[in-house]
Amino acid sequence: MRDLRQKLQYSMFQKVLVSDDLECTNEGVLSVLKSLKIKHAEHVQYCDDACLKIKRAQLDLEPFDLFITDLSFVKDHREQKYTSGEALIIALKKEYPKLKIIVYSVDDRLQKVRFLMNGHQTNGYVCKGRQGLVELENAIQAVFNNETYVSPQLRQALSPKNDQEIDDYDILLIKLLSNGLSQEEISAHFKNENRSPSSLSSIEKRLNKLRIQFKANNAIHLVAIVKDLGLI
């Protein structure tokens, strides 16, 4: 590790922005950046501030190399255009696709990891926790080397052999089921939202398929399994 850090003194991100509404988290992340000899590191507590800093840096031709952000931000008196790290990541990746982004969050839902890593080309996803800062350091090193990084406990989310892959329609269907809606009520809900398929027979077939896929005995068991997997 010492040899690797010595090498990183000469080859590492030069300008990094950290976004988290908890000052103690920002301080912890900044300590990791300092240990990696990153020369310029800034931190903010609001998504809108992060967005403005990134845009300003681009206009000044001094762009940030890396953006590290939480996903959840507590609402307060200040009105925000971007109320979550997720919304900001989606917007930034559209405008600045080359910007490297690492998520640092307590949200360990596998579907969230897939959504951001596969759907929006986020470069890293690290879970906050006892080993969070250690994993974050590993993530920064990996992303600098043009690799992706996901915390070990979440790597099954990106496995191509994962036979428990479900799409957004399935997620919504199971969420509504977990909220106590009957299949008839789910059908009516989908029709009101112009979501397809919405027929009762289609919903019954999809739920049967999901029960078989997850080896669930019934709908309640299916909801429990999917929750345990962190998919909802």
Mean model confidence by pLDDT: 89
Residue fraction in strands? 5-15%
- Report helical residue fraction: 40-55%
Number of helices: 10
H/E element sequence: HEHEHEHEHEHEHHHH
What is the terminal separation in angstroms?
Answer: 37 Å
Computed structural class: alpha/beta
Rg calculated over all Cα atoms: 20 Å
Strand order of the largest sheet: 2-1-3-4-5-6
Low-confidence stretches: 6-10
Number of strands: 6
What profile does the largest beta sheet have? 6 strands, parallel
**What overall geometry do the principal axes of the alpha carbons give?**
elongated
Describe this structure in words.
- The chain has 232 residues and is an alpha/beta fold.
- The chain has ten helices and six strands; from the N terminus they run αβαβαβαβαβαβαααα.
- The chain has helices spanning 2-8, 23-35, 47-59, 85-95, 110-117, 132-144, 168-178, 183-192, 200-213, 219-228; strands at residues 15-19, 40-44, 66-69, 100-105, 124-127, 149-150.
- The chain has a six-stranded parallel sheet, sandwiched between helices.
- Helix 2 (23-35) crosses helix 6 and helix 7 (168-178) packs across helix 10 (219-228).
- The protein is elongated and about 60 Å long.
- The two termini are 37 Å apart.
